[in-house]
Amino acid sequence: MSVTIYDVAKKAGVAISTVSRVLNNTGYVSEKTRKRVMGVVEELNYEKNMLAVALMKKQTKTIGLIIPDITNHFYADLTRAVEDEGNRHGFNVILCNTDNDMEKEASYVSFLLQKNIDGIIFASPKKDDPNIKALCDKNPQFPIVQLGGEVEGVNTDKVLVENSQGAYDLTKHLIELGHESFGVVLGHRNSLASKDRLDGINIAINEANLRLVKQNILYGDFKMQDGLKSALQLLKSKNRPTAIIAATDLLAIGCYQAAKSIGLSIPDDLSITGFDDIEIAQAVEPALTTVTSPIEQLGVRAVEMVVSTIEKPKAYKEKTVYQPTMVIRGSTGTPVNNYTVSS
Amino acid sequence: MSVTIYDVAKKAGVAISTVSRVLNNTGYVSEKTRKRVMGVVEELNYEKNMLAVALMKKQTKTIGLIIPDITNHFYADLTRAVEDEGNRHGFNVILCNTDNDMEKEASYVSFLLQKNIDGIIFASPKKDDPNIKALCDKNPQFPIVQLGGEVEGVNTDKVLVENSQGAYDLTKHLIELGHESFGVVLGHRNSLASKDRLDGINIAINEANLRLVKQNILYGDFKMQDGLKSALQLLKSKNRPTAIIAATDLLAIGCYQAAKSIGLSIPDDLSITGFDDIEIAQAVEPALTTVTSPIEQLGVRAVEMVVSTIEKPKAYKEKTVYQPTMVIRGSTGTPVNNYTVSS
DNA sequence: GTGAAAGCGCTAACAG
DNA sequence: CTGTTAGCGCTTTCAC
């Protein structure tokens, strides 16, 4: 089999504890012995078995990252940030895609636990996520951070983005351009991403003494197709809006397709806004007005939180909140409002 | 601490070996004892410690997936497929983003080895990747599959896509439309993705007795920005092409931006083709003519290969090759060829 | 059928 | 400074 600490010890003519000491820089070892041991380590190409270490130390140097879907660009970026930052701290991360399926999430959680991971980052938990609560109840000490969402009544570390603020900014921007009727294309009904954004939109609309008709708030999945579908429904309705606020860029791009399919021009006939500022947002025609989150910083902060909790349990929980930034591009403009729609 | 097999054994009044037997369905256990043990397991909420199991069995039920960058949509899709299929087989996967940096890859490989993972899938290895070779040389038995690329002189299982065929099809399609001068926007010079595609392009061009001028073959990174930059260079040159063949959709979309920025219309003034058929390809205006690979199947097959090798080492290596499919959309058309370019 | 005991490869007291 | 030893939690002979 592979070479163990025993092989090294024997060949170097020392005890395994000595080898362990030089390998971990722990305790005193004479320079001479250290040299000799290191020599043998090189020679034998010894690699430490982390499994044994983990079993002993009860630390796997691994964290779990639970996200809805890596295929979504936002989560891809986030995952990248978490991985890189995790590695920087000597941790590796196990990715889990739940597709927002709570059973899938539950089985991932118990899987991660069996694997003795040291902590979990839950990205964008649904607001009624039962697994986070169950886990916290069972083991309040276990390092958990909620990223981009918070489950009611669960006290963990948190990293949040004030999405409602972003939605507010976008809406206000549209109002200032002269828009008075809006369509809102959201994702899952019980995702925080949907709720937060709707909140911000409502605040801005109320402030302006306008109103948002209920039928113009549409839910669906987070795929481009869903944006297309929702927008179509919106644009063919009686009180069709002059602006659509989508919960994500991908949804917004779906709306572009809908507009094009029925011959509406953006932004003259219809203004559209997104959320996330994915790479493609600047490539579409016209470029998409959207809101950008410090995704990398989100990941970095979340990792810092778990890792610090893992290394030194603390009695309190903390929360960091980031503000998103609006990016105005070509997809929003003054409404012209004189178009007709082919039913 | 957490509950162990000893706790269960004690409470059930049996030996740990008995508990192990009922847990793993191995050896004879009386129905009565089994019931009792299972009862205690439920009661104590016992979860097996996979670390100890792994140390004992020398199997972690984990595979490593090495990719350039999860942020690239192609790899996001691939990763998703690999994860799902891995889980289906009871394996979990550790993601490693190398950014095509061989040193980073090397450190990941040794990291994975220390973690005692059971096998590795190398996605899109560069053709001179030194780590794969080193690993194979050191341990020829270790389960490895190369996906979407092959390092010269290294004998492992492989899952490939005949990208040269896709490039050939695309080029031929352009030739049939009447194009005679081409620009080629590639990624890294020593990536297989670049080489394969260029091969296919050359074959088609030679077949038609046309020729591809060397200055019209541009390399860069795989980001959208690089596509923009390369296309700009191409379009401002003396012998500007009427068609650009990009190595990926993202690069192609970068070319769209270049065309727009200097007022060329697609496909009248310039035809553009991509590669991969990412979701956005149908959303851009005009929709992108590209080539689609069975990404999910690629991932599935790769997992099948590692897993089967892990579970039952085999003496031979195998290779599965998939054919890509061309998807013709609006970005390619007959060249009009009467445009002028503002320098 | 079930129990006792020997490790898997490593760390961490505890002696010397 | 270095060696001995006792586990970490589990699987797996080998006896009974």
UniProtKB/TrEMBL annotation, chains A, B:
Keyword Transcription: yes
The HTH lacI-type domain, residue ranges: 3-57
Family annotation (InterPro entries): HTH_LacI (IPR000843), Lambda_DNA-bd_dom_sf (IPR010982), Peripla_BP/Lac1_sug-bd_dom (IPR001761), Peripla_BP_I (IPR028082)
Record CDD domains: HTH_LacI (cd01392), PBP1_LacI_sugar_binding-like (cd06267)
Source superkingdom: Bacteria
Gene3D superfamilies in alphabetical order: 3.40.50.2300, lambda repressor-like DNA-binding domains
Record keywords, A-Z: DNA-binding, Repressor, Transcription, Transcription regulation
UniProt-listed PANTHER family: HTH-TYPE TRANSCRIPTIONAL REPRESSOR PURR-RELATED, LACI-RELATED TRANSCRIPTIONAL REPRESSOR
Keyword Transcription regulation: yes
Protein name: LacI family transcriptional regulator
SUPFAM superfamilies: lambda repressor-like DNA-binding domains, Periplasmic binding protein-like I
A Pfam family that the UniProt record links to this protein: LacI
